[in-house]
Amino acid sequence: MGPQDPKDIATSVTRDMSGLAGELASAKGDATHWLTGPEYAALLHRLEDAHAAVEAALIEARRRVRLNEGRER
To answer: Is residue 59 in some structural domain?
Structure first.
C-alpha cells in the first residue's frame, strides 16, 4: 500500500470516529440504565468523559475536512 492522500485519511478517520461516538453513546446509555449503584459512579463519569472527548475530536475532524474541501475549490 502506497502513500495516501491526507484528505482521504481525514475523511476516513472522521467516519470511524462517528461510529465510535455512537458506540460510546450506546454503552453510556446501557451503563446508565443498568448500573445504578453508587459504586459505578466513577465508571459512568469516565464513560461520559470518553464520549465528550470523542465528540470534541469528531467536531475538530469534521472542521478540518470542511477546510480541506474549501481549499480544493
So the answer is: yes
Pair 34, 57: CB distance under 8 Å: no
- Are the CB atoms for 65 and 10 separated by under 8 Å? yes
Q: What pLDDT sits at residue 73?
A: 64
Range of the domain at 73: 36-73
CA pair distance 63, 14, nearest whole angstrom: 10
pTM: 0.80
- Distance, in Å, from the CA atom of 21 to the CA atom of 54, rounded to the nearest integer, reads 6
37: alpha, beta or left? (left if phi > 0; alpha if psi -120 to 50): beta
Amino acid at residue number 25: A
Q: Please indicate, yes or no, if residue 11 is contained in any of the structural domains.
A: no
